[in-house]
Design a protein that fits this description.
Elements: H1 2-18, H2 28-35, H3 41-69
């Protein structure tokens, strides 16, 4: 049961890390200002920081549980 959750978490972490706002005005910051989908670039960066941290904690806790079970 934990293996599919770990797989989904790792895929979501990869996607969130790829969506990180670069320091230049390209990538997600340009997309966010054009579409207003993610709000301001600083708000989108804060949200992605929270999602990344939460995803890493979930991933580590699942990995530890899987290693202890085997």
């Amino acid at each position: 049961m934990l293996k599919p959750i770990a797989f989904i978490t790792s895929i979501l972490l990869i996607l969130v890390i790829f969506l990180r706002v670069p320091q230049e005005n390209v990538g997600l910051s340009g997309f966010a200002t054009k579409s207003d989908l993610l709000g301001s670039p600083s708000s989108a960066e804060r949200t992605l920081n929270i999602l990344t941290g939460l995803g890493i904690l979930i991933y580590f806790s699942i990995a530890i549980q899987l290693n202890l079970a085997s």
